[in-house]
Write a structure and sequence with these properties.
It contains 19 helices and no strands. The chain has 410 residues and is mainly alpha-helical.
């Protein structure tokens, strides 16, 4: 009895396996009606009873391709018709995308060794010859979806185009040219707009390898990483990622600015100073790092240190007007702080202390008047009130009154 039961179970399993594999044949018979064929075939793709997964996925690629080929044939026929037959463009593009991805899956199984350890692909050549000529249609598909603001579908189309370049199915046949990187950048943007930041990061990272789209791809990458910051742990991970990217490409200012933005948040002044202090050792000729170091010191009321850092930045770029202003502003703050400390409870300065304070104000005056001359309309920096503080501190009533008129005109 037990032997009979075991045999019955074995026969039932074999019948189930046969039924699943038979779905492939049934589906291919319905290829002319691809929607119905997909319904028939889909269960066989994931069923453990399907013994020939390569055949199942190969059939799915073939059937999905029919959505594209049927629509394309109708488009050709429409050229000779007065009354055009409507084309399901979205269905056509979706079918092509699914055909590519099914072919990739087919190839995974098709290239597995048989029981003798040999690889004998049956479907690779057919899939390759069918899909290679229409690969660029995926670009049009992505554009169609993107323009309709279906960003998730655009990612799928453009992402399939990008993935095909590294797919073993097309090994050695696809060149990663400027179009490849441009589409990777498009895919990254569409993914970002669809709030799929993981995909945006993936495709932006690919696009970074092309100088033509690198800047935009970097912005997408950084923005995507930033959007993922929901917790303190996420924020720390974001900073670590920024440092990692900075280490690989220290000349990429977008990364540096993102780091500065992160470190400029409240409560991070000391962290910013520590990071900048280490970074200027690695990149001593980077004017921005010196400027950011000065900002952190200025915010911590370390005005003398800030002035030194800003002047180092200014020495690297004498036209860096924003830093020139920060030198003047730091000197004003330093002079004001010194005056308060030296005056003490009496509120008065002796001659020597007054001379020290005046010297700092004079230094600030030099920088701020230079800025006034270079930027008279205050388009880059609003120097007016700080210069007023200088004239007031120096007791120059006429100059102070002149600036008051400028301030009054705002």
């Amino acid at each position: 009895m037990k032997k009979f039961m075991f045999m019955a179970v074995a026969l039932a399993s074999a019948a189930t396996a046969f039924a699943q594999d038979d779905l492939v044949k049934q589906a291919l018979k319905e290829k002319g009606n691809p929607a119905e064929a997909v319904k028939i075939l889909t269960p066989a793709l994931t069923s453990p009873q399907t013994t020939n997964k390569a055949a199942a996925w190969g059939a799915m690629s073939d059937i999905q391709y029919q959505f594209y080929s049927n629509a394309y044939e109708q488009m050709v026929q429409n050229q000779f018709k007065t009354e055009k037959t409507p084309i399901d463009t979205l269905g056509m593009y979706n079918g092509l995308i699914e055909s590519f991805n099914a072919a990739f899956k087919c190839d995974e199984f098709d290239m597995q060794p048989n029981e003798k350890g040999k690889v004998k692909p049956k479907y690779r050549s057919k899939n390759k010859s069918r899909l290679a000529p229409v690969r660029n249609v995926l670009i049009d598909a992505g554009s169609q979806f993107y323009n309709a603001k279906n960003y998730a579908a655009a990612v799928k189309a453009w992402g399939t185009f990008v993935a095909s370049a590294d797919a073993p199915l097309f090994e050695g046949e696809i060149k990663k040219d400027s179009t490849f990187y441009l589409i990777a950048d498009y895919a990254a943007l569409a993914a970002y707009l669809s709030k799929n930041y993981a995909e945006a990061t993936k495709y932006a990272t690919v696009a970074l390898d092309d100088p033509k789209v690198k800047a935009e791809a970097m912005n997408i990458l950084l923005s995507s990483q930033k959007e993922c910051c929901k917790t303190k742990e996420d924020s720390v991970a974001y900073f670590e990622k920024l440092k990692e990217i900075r280490a690989k490409d220290p000349n990429e200012n977008a990364v540096l600015f993102a780091i500065n933005e992160y470190l400029s948040q409240p409560g991070r002044a000391e962290l910013k100073e520590a990071w900048c202090a280490e970074e200027v050792k690695k990149t001593p000729n980077d004017k921005f790092v010196w400027a950011f170091l000065g900002e952190s010191q200025m915010n911590q009321q370390k005005y003398a240190d800030a002035v030194a850092s800003f002047k180092k930045s200014l020495s690297l770029d004498p036209s860096f007007i924003e830093v020139e202003y920060n030198v003047g502003a730091s000197l004003v703050l330093q002079a004001t702080q010194m005056k308060e400390q030296l005056a003490g409870a009496t509120g008065r300065l002796n001659a020597d202390d007054a001379a020290k304070v005046k010297a700092i104000f004079e230094d600030a005056k030099t920088h701020l008047e230079k800025i006034r001359q270079a930027d008279p309309n205050r388009e880059k920096v609003n120097w007016a009130y700080t210069l007023y503080q200088v004239y007031y501190g120096l007791g120059d009533a006429d100059k102070a009154a002149e600036i008051e008129k400028i301030l009054g005109g705002n």
